[in-house]
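ok so I'm stuck.
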Amino acid sequence: MLTRRKPTYYVRLRCCLLPVLSWLVAMIINTRRDYPIPLIYYPGNAIDSIVRRLGGLPQEGPIPDDSVSISDVLDHLDAHNAVIVDARAESDFDRGHIPGAINLPWDAFERKFHAFRAFMMSRSPTRIVVYCSSDACSDSSSVRKALYMLGYRNTGVLKGGWSLWTELLLPIDRDIPR
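replied:
not stuck anymore, here's the structure
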């Protein structure tokens, strides 16, 4: 019958020391990166790093809350003095959006922002209204915050978002702007 030997002190030490050393090396490498991976994720980390890469400055302190009602959006659409930004995914945008809206989804913000900036240079709107699926969706707030930090101060988030717009049977557009 074979007897099982107890692990020696050095074997136990190596089993504990190896994960600790691996973690320590990973932390050192992470701190030396241009854009380190945050140890604790919150949406503000992602927004700040995207804004820095696009040449903006992260906002110190809270950004003023600015909610926009459906009636305000309808007034802006009639007056042609606002840009409506759809923060939903491209596939959702393709299925339908507020007439005249442009798609700037949060998950593709960095990739699509330069086209948005070029579009904004050709216009002089007094307002940017961002919307998402509903009030529970945080993408519109993230896009608004990033736009605010990139210099577009006159921005607001549509209360109720796309779900309220469709619930009220307001006009929708399925044409995809190219």
